[in-house]
Amino acid sequence: MTDHRLPSAAVVVLASAIAAAGMVAHNLFEFGPAFLLDPQTLIPLAIFGLLALLAWARPANAVVHVALLTWALLNLVGGGILSVLPLGLFPFQPEQSFGHYGAHVIYGAAQLPLAVVAARALRRRGRQAAGEDAR
User: Fold this and answer.
1) φ, ψ for residue 90, nearest 5 deg
2) Extended strands (E) in 1-135
3) Does residue 13 carry a pLDDT above 90?
4) Is the Cβ–Cβ distance between 41 and 27 less than 8 Å?
């Protein structure tokens, strides 16, 4: 029998902390410790924190799961993948080095637990709404 319960608030908060830690690790490696106090680090950290608090306070709220999934995918695709490629999309030329790619692999990989947890929560919610889990 498959477990179709929504993820616990603790699991969502842990996944959020892992995602935030990946972003912080990237910024620390790429820009140094002083950048940890920069708004480009503090604002995304505040967003991770706010979404984690909302998930803790309202663990069954679909809007929170959509926001978590959107935020994780934005960080994965925009921060982890696109911003490392020399595509001309951003107002900077990304460094093309093994270390830079490594920092982005860590950043992107750290977003995956949050994306998976949020996507599963939405999928389970959809199944519950469709009556598949009615017992």
Assistant:
1) -115, 160
2) none
3) yes
4) yes
Q: Which helix (H) or strand (E) holds 19?
A: helix 9-31
SS3 state at 57: helix
Residue with tokens 């306070």: 57
The span from the CA of 116 to the CA of 13, in Å, is: 13
Q: Which of 15, 13, 19, 38 is closest to 28 using CA atoms? A: 38
| 56-84 pLDDT per residue, tens | 998 778 999 999 999 999 999 999 999 88
Instruction: Give me the long-range contacts of 121-125 (CB less than 8 A, separation at least 24).
Output: 121/6, 121/7, 121/12, 121/65, 122/62, 122/65, 122/66, 122/69, 124/4, 124/5, 124/6, 125/6, 125/60, 125/62, 125/65
CA–CA distances in Å: residue 121 to residues 13, 28, 39, 77, 114: 13, 31, 31, 20, 11
| CA angle centred on 112, ends 124 and 64, rounded to 5° | 50
